């Protein structure tokens, strides 16, 4: 199931809001993306079985209309090999079409991934591995030791968090990374991933808004896509949507206080709208107010309109006072729907040969 550069690979946590978002993406958009799903770390008060029960609840139904997904268990590496074994076995038993993800420096999930490569195997390279040097040699050793060919492998170049880099810095890092990767044209799929989303909403004052650059997208589009004729192969684009890679484990917005906030994706920026602590004013009151500001207020010029996606439609419903749309989890869902729609549409609408 190969795909080309006109395809999107969003990296998403396997959490309830993200699963709901994936279900509300229309089929035409689903067909142009392959989600990379990360099982989040287990909390100490839960057993591994209970944790995976939560992760896999409704996951098969969520992915039923997707051609496949990448499934990554690196966050539960602390469980040892048992975590990856159980996760991949559950996915197989649920009928999920998945490609297991592993890496050069990993130990706990290599053997389980190799045992579940009915739909190929994804090799996710990290910036740390690039910085260790001799990346091409290590890739070739990994393939040889595990009896793999490049055609069997989905290669993912993961730049990691780049929110502290300007666009030109990300472009240089992309060039450095890609120069170390051999045989670009031979991999089953070839993807470059990065995350420029801010680590914390603390960068914004309460009761205010800010625009922050989607620099990983700009670097891919302006540096890689615009130079595609000079590349052996243009990699597909991947990002982490509206979530910083670390920091969600252990946080439950249903019981923990947080500032109400809206994360809304624009063409080249994120519009971040922040209220105040939900301890001061409960989320059920704040989120409709933030929605009203986006849909009808001073920020309405940024709003894409209700016909753009289900996320935008429900944001307007929230602004109009519809019930059950006033929690952080719901707004993670709505923002994710909107982001996936914006990026997929942007990729597809580019001129392609």
- Rg from Cα: 20 Å
Strand order of the largest sheet: 1-2-3-4-5-6-7-9
Alpha carbon gap, first and last residue:
21 Å
Overall strand count? 11
Report the structural category: alpha/beta
Percent of residues in β-strands? 15-25%
Helix content: 25-40%
Work out the helix count: 13
Broad shape: globular
Describe this structure in words.
This protein is an alpha/beta fold. 37% of the residues lie in helices and 19% in strands. The chain is built from 13 helices and 11 strands. The protein has helices at 16-23, 27-30, 48-56, 59-63, 81-93, 110-114, 127-132, 135-145, 167-180, 215-224, 283-295, 310-319, 328-349, and strands at 8-13, 36-38, 69-72, 98-102, 121-126, 153-161, 189-195, 208-213, 236-239, 259-265, 269-277. The strands form 2 sheets. An 8-stranded parallel barrel has the order 1-2-3-4-5-6-7-9, surrounded by 4 helices. Strands 8-11-10 form a 3-stranded antiparallel sheet. A hairpin with a 3-residue loop joins strand 10 (259-265) and strand 11. Helix 12 (310-319) packs across helix 13. The longest helix is centred in the last third of the chain and has 22 residues, at 328-349.
């Amino acid at each position: 199931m190969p795909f080309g550069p006109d395809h999107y690979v969003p990296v998403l946590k396997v959490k309830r809001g993200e699963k709901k978002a994936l279900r509300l993406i229309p089929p035409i958009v689903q067909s142009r993306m392959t989600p990379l799903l990360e099982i989040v770390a287990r909390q100490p008060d839960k057993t591994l079985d209970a944790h995976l029960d939560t992760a896999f609840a409704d996951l098969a139904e969520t992915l039923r209309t997707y051609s496949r997904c990448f499934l990554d268990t690196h966050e539960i590496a602390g469980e040892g090999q048992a975590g990856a074994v159980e996760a991949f076995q559950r996915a197989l038993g649920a009928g999920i079409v998945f490609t297991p993800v592993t890496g050069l420096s990993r130990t706990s999930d290599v053997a389980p991934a190799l045992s579940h490569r009915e739909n190929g195997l994804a090799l996710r390279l990290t910036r740390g591995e690039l910085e260790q040097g001799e990346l091409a040699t290590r890739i070739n050793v990994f393939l040889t030791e595990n009896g793999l060919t490049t055609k069997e492998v989905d290669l993912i170049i993961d730049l990691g968090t780049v929110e502290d880099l300007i666009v030109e810095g990300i472009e240089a890092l992309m060039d450095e990374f890609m120069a170390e990767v051999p045989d670009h044209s031979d991999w089953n799929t070839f993807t470059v991933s990065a995350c420029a989303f801010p680590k914390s909403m603390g960068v914004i004052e309460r009761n205010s808004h800010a625009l922050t650059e989607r620099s990983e997208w700009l670097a891919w589009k302006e540096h890689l896509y615009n130079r595609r004729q000079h590349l052996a192969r243009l990699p597909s684009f991947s990002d982490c949507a509206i979530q910083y890679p670390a920091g969600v484990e252990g946080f439950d917005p249903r019981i923990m206080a947080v500032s109400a906030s809206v994360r809304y994706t624009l063409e080249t920026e994120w519009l971040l709208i922040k209220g105040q602590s939900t301890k001061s004013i409960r989320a059920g009151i704040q989120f409709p107010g933030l929605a009203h500001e986006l849909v009808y207020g001073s920020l309405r010029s940024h709003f894409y309109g209700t016909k753009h996606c289900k996320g935008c439609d429900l944001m307007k419903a929230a602004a109009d006072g519809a019930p059950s749309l006033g929690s952080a989890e719901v707004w993670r869902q709505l923002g994710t729907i909107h982001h996936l729609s914006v990026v997929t549409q942007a990729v597809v609408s580019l001129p392609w040969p």
